Amino acid sequence: MIPPLRSTPSRSLALAYWRQKTARRAAARPSASNLLDILLDGYCVLDEEGRIQHTNPALESLLACPAHQLGGRLLLEFIEPSCQTDFLSLLELMKYSRSRIGPLEVEMKTAAGEPLAVFLTLAPSPNGGRELAQVLLRDVSQWRQVQNELVAVNLMLEQSFTDTLEGWAKALELRDYETHGHTQRVAEATVQLALEIGYRLEEVLNLRHGALLHDIGKMAISDTILLKPGPLNEAEWEIMRRHPVYAEQLLRQIDYLRPAIPIPYCHHEKWDGSGYPQGLKGEQIPLEARLFAVIDVYDALRSSRPYRPAPWSEERTLEHIRQQAGTHFDPEVVKAFLKMKNFD
Questions:
Q1: In sequence order, what DSSP letters do the residues of 198-263 get, joined into one string?
Q2: Residue that is last in its domain, among 140, 167, 191
Q3: What is the pLDDT of residues 88-135, one digit of tens each?
Q4: Is-catalytic flag, 218?
Q5: Catalytic site residue from 109, 218, 270, 339
Q6: Is residue 7 part of a domain?
Q7: Which of 65, 216, 230, 273 is deepest in the core (most CB within 10 A)?
Q8: What is the CATH number of the domain that holds 184?
Q9: Is the pTM of this model over 0.85?
Q10: What SS3 class is residue 63?
């Protein structure tokens, strides 16, 4: 049997030391209030009317307003009108779900009216009573500014890229003045037709790039063939028919131009398989190239060429395209094109 512990001076001293150490640890442990004071994000408690009841220093700094001026004010006063409905909806959702909601990005303003971008999170107050919600506010103004600057730089790069492509297209047209303006016309018309059949606006960018570069392969064709005033012989035609292949070989080396390849490479393919350079048939031909083929032929027939006395009339051109549905052109694309031209 283990004998009972007896009180001794050494045991009393050990107990006193243990109690003192425990008390010091408890005193050093941060309280909820202390944690809120060192929190980098703004924090406040809202009552049932949405008025600010408690704050931390970070919120006072964020809103540039001391605690005694924040108390009792509606948090809604600091939220821009365009975001107030979303905030109230979030508050209502939290109230009935009794769960944490957010973060929601809202536009706010300081007490002095300076703009702020804030991620706002709501949670039910654990204290109950008149305390409705705890609100955490994270300042993302600097992040938003960086994001906007990146968007601006990206737009500038995209514009520079487009300007470069248009420069290439114009350089090619300078070699053959008879096609002056053709590239821009077919690029814009192809975009219009793509939108007509249901392409989204963001989907037509690569299509437009392909249309601008549709004849880029002709840069590899000698002037004696490209600018020959009379008809080409069979050997010359064989070389001319290589220009889509030259285009593909050029563009595949450039990562950001690969999505534009289908039009330069396939716009001379025909629905019945009699086109070039691959002899693709039907839906083997990329849709972008099927769209462009109709536009390209339409613009060529409506323009002056050395080998044709005068441009065709609108009616004659549209009738020709209708007749070529199912042989040269995709019948569904022809329907959409004629509808766009009010010739259906």
A1: T--GGGHHHHHHHHHTTTGGGGGS-HHHHT-SS---HHHHHHHTTHHHHHHHHHTTSGGGGGGTHH
A2: 140
A3: 999 999 988 889 988 889 999 999 999 999 999 999 988 877 889 999
A4: yes
A5: 218
A6: no
A7: 216
A8: 1.10.3210.10
A9: no
A10: helix
